[in-house]
Description:
Elements: H1 12-24, H2 33-46, H3 50-55, H4 57-68, H5 79-82, H6 84-109, E1 117-120, E2 124-127, H7 138-164, H8 170-173, H9 175-187, H10 189-194, H11 196-202, H12 206-209
Antiparallel strand pairs: 1-2
Helix pairs in contact: 1-4, 2-9, 4-7, 6-7, 6-9, 9-11
Amino acid sequence: MLKKKRWYDYLWIASATYLILGFFNILFAWLGLICFITPLLIAIIKGDKAYCNRYCGRGQLFELLGGRLGLSLKKAPPGFLRSKWFRYGFLAFFMTMFGVMIYTTYTVFAGASLKEAVTLLWVFKLPWNWTNTTFVPSWAAQFAFGFYSVMLTSTVLGILTMLLFKPRSWCVYCPMGTMTQGICQIKHRKEFLNGAESKENCRNTEGTCQ
């Protein structure tokens, strides 16, 4: 019997649309803040990982490409990706890069020149010279370039792990997943240590991602 589709099963369309819109106008990158703030709010308010398990359009996109379209080797990801040291180390690195992005935005706000480039994998600069950002403050455009770099880089990493391993292997070490898991565990520390319900709520989407 086919499982009935729900509205949030189609959020992969939003993730794909976001990436496409960024190529036409970098300012659409600001929409990515929805995917940055919403998981944290859900974890803080509800104390669970509902966003990762239900509402993550990126995870759905990887599942579509790797699962239904067969682009994944569907191998179990290596153990080190699941390890705490790697997940928290990658989170620290990712947040450092995010901090650099915020600092660069501040320098432009303070008078530095706008750097119109998307940086892929923190190394390769992709010129976005056709984008018209003259109708917004330079700092707003700089934030858009930086944030789209973060979103594009994480998507590329997710696609690479999708191709090599299971479709949603990115979820195993996703920085947002690691943060929400930590928030959930702190919020339910007592129950997490003693109750099965909180363990279920706080787990790192083991059933779908690992």
